[in-house]
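CORE FACILITY INTAKE
Project code: CF-77B
Contact: R.S. (postdoc)
Sample description: multi-component assembly, two entities in total
Requested service: structural model of the whole complex
Turnaround: standard
Below are the sequence entries exactly as provided by the requester. Do not edit them.
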Amino acid sequence: MRFVDEFREPALISKTAEEIRRLAGTNRHYRMMEVCGGHTHAIYRFGLKDILPENIELIHGPGCPVCVLPMGRIDDGLSIAQQPDVIFAAFGDMMRVPGTQGSPLEHKARGMDVRIVYSPSDALKVARLNPEKHVMFFAIGFETTAPSTALTMMRARAEGIRNFSVFCNHVTIIPAIRAILDSPDMRLDAFIGPGHVSTVIGCRPYEWIAHNERKPIVVSGFEPLDMLQSIVMLLRQLKAGEAKVENQYKRVVPWEGNRAALKAMAEVFQLRPYFEWRGLGFISQSALRVNDKYAEWDAERRFAVPGIRVTDPKAAQCGEVLKGVLKPHQCKLFGRECTPEHPIGALMVSSEGSCAAYHSYEHRKAAMVSLSSIA
Amino acid sequence: MCLAIPGKIVEISSDNHDSALVDVVGVRRRIDLGLLQDDKPVPGDWVLVHVGFAMSKISAEDAADQMNTLRMLGEIDGAMQEVRGYGLEDVN
């Protein structure tokens, strides 16, 4: 067993791993999807695959906001920012994501006014500081970040700041899970539920997964022990033939979620009839748009948006990796044309993308093994 | 962006009750409390911060655990860079 001594409570981790081995037995193969990209990162980082028995397979889910954003949306956002006197503001995670004509950072090098912000409220601050310019905030994220964008827009409206708009790419996690369950090439036994998204939406929205689809789901924390405990909880349900929503991450996630955050989202956003996800295609009611009340702060209504649709580079197999059909290293470009230094697909950009996570930990480990075998 | 950063509320602004000074391992920045409307934190409370907004109240013990999780995940530098960037300070 690798690394275990570095973790908190190594004895308890060993005991939990033992319990997993006992529950999993050897007769059955278990496919569990971790929905959240943060969990994907943690799984590779901690080498959890080396701790788990072989018949537990972890499938990486769609919960990396940068990764599921189709390239056309990046092109659309950048095309707005090409208009005179527009400042493009976005989180650092977005800066290296490739568009057809390069990433936001590359556009900055060519003269576009691109600002990294760490909070949507700072994008609004840029607007206050630059009244002669228009600041477009390129908003991404699941329900973890959508309430902050919403509240920022409420502030802009209350203060009458009109040189600020949001290019909204916020997506919602439940329809993505539904699309994965509806996909014929995807067979899953259970879900490790997202931690921080659930801080906002709570645990109730997952109930249909248990009740209608008969799949157990456990909302999980991010430490090794959290994830191992969640897997124990899932195995116990599967062994007992049960399907329930359980909350392993009670110390942070309230069952009812965060009401004020949900209220802010409801004030500003409405569901889009459909939205394109990289790898998953068009999913109905899976994303948020700005509602009529906030139209003035909606970049898609203030500016002409070309509505660019781009197919991924042919050789890149981001879609298959995103759906869990291929493992990262099975993509033809992985580690060769596509690396964290020169990403071709978004999965290689974000540390929560499975390709970047796999490249940082597994690939390096494999390289070290092959080097040591040569030596 | 998806980091949950634990911070201790140091002071609530007197002129804006939705604005608070938090301390994240010695770095002090203003964050927004507007999403904790139903359960407003007071100085001394610990909160989890996402993109400059407090999203949940947590215990001091869980805050220490969360800091440890970030450290184990190798995300402590990213988290501190994010915190330092709040309010457009230390940006670029």
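Facility notes:
- The radius of gyration of chain A is 21 Å.
- Chain A touches chain B through 50 residues (CB under 8 Å).
Invoice: internal transfer
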